[in-house]
């Protein structure tokens, strides 16, 4: 049976080790540092840095323009399609961007899906609707695969949209009430090339 005296001794040993900067679990190198919150890309109406609108839709072309990222073919769902072939950019094993094909063999829409991205006004994946300071009047209810998800145009960037999720929300044919919408979480930032 463990006695209080033994527990006090153990807590004293653990506290001493912690104060001395020692780890009884192993070396500090056993633990990975938390992921960086530094922005890797700022998505604006002009696009994604390094991927101008005329970029060829190819793994080789995108890898040449974005050193430090690996590019892989993926299949993803969009609002209107269950299965779209795309190219995804990964950094440190985490997906950052999804690039869809556009007309003429060039890139089309680019979906930002990482917390390390920043939108035109400083919006980040994971922010709530309230934190992102999005205007309700710039939003519509998603359709198809994104049914019930608020889809909003970025302030000052008409070709950038935000896709929000509301866990447990069932679409009612319109955006939810303000209180529900305020807690919606930003899931993707989407840039589309401007129409020329």
Quick one: CATH superfamily of the largest domain?
A: protein yfey like domain
Radius of gyration: 22 Å
CATH topology name of the largest domain: protein yfey like fold
How many beta-strand runs?
10
Shape: globular
In short:
The chain is of the alpha+beta class. The chain contains four helices and ten strands.
How does this structure look, described?
The protein is of the alpha+beta class. It folds into two domains: 1-30, no CATH class; 41-191, Sandwich (protein yfey like fold). It is 16% helix and 29% strand. The chain has four helices and ten strands. It has an eight-stranded antiparallel beta sheet with strand order 2-3-4-5-10-9-8-7, with helices on one face. The protein has a two-stranded parallel ribbon with strand order 1-6. Strand 8 and strand 9 form a beta hairpin. The longest helix is centred in the N-terminal third of the chain and has 16 residues, at 4-19. The chain starts with a helix and ends in a 5-residue tail after the last strand. The relative contact order is 0.15. The model is unreliable at 1-37 (pLDDT under 50).
